[in-house]
Each structure stands twice: as C-alpha cells, then as structure tokens.
Structure to design on (88 residues):
C-alpha cells in the first residue's frame, strides 16, 4: 500500500458516523490538495468494511457514487447515521 493510500485510508477511517468529508477535504488533510480525484479512485476501489468510504462526498454536497450498491445505498447509510446521531 502506498503512503498516499495509507494516509487517505487513515483519514477516512476516522470520519465519525453521521459526518462527512469531501474528496477535496480528504486530499487536503493528507497533504495533497490537488488529489481529490485520486481520493475518489481509492474510494471506488475500497471494499474494506473498516473504511467508511460512504462518508466521503462530492464538493457540491451530492453523495456521488458508492461501490457497494450505488448512490441510493450511500444516501441511505448517511441518512441512517445522521438520524442515529440525533438520538444520542
């Protein structure tokens, strides 16, 4: 695993349930502000359930795609997590 990929996965793994970051924000947090597309490509290929890639969204606020069922599944997961956070 490359250093860039390790840093991206660490940032994404630490996004709390009910919260999101954009691909651009993740890229900035790992020190590669121009690498939003590379972050998206990593998320597209991520099937590790310990990495909550559904919490990474597009800069325009739309959810974007999700490799485990499409954007509708991603939106359902985010909505469920936000709802659970309100109950806490």
């Amino acid at each position: 695993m490359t250093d860039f990929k390790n840093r991206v996965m660490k940032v994404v793994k630490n996004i709390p349930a009910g919260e999101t970051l954009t691909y651009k924000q993740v890229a900035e947090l790992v020190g590669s502000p121009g690498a939003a597309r590379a972050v998206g490509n990593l998320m597209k290929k991520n099937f590790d359930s310990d990495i909550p890639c559904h919490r990474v969204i597009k800069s325009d606020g739309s959810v974007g795609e999700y490799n485990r069922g499409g954007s509708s599944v991603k939106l359902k997961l985010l909505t469920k997590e936000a709802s659970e956070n309100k109950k806490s």
Summary: Residues 81 and 87 are 10 Å apart (CA to CA). The longest helix spans residues 71-87. The chain has one domain: 3-83.
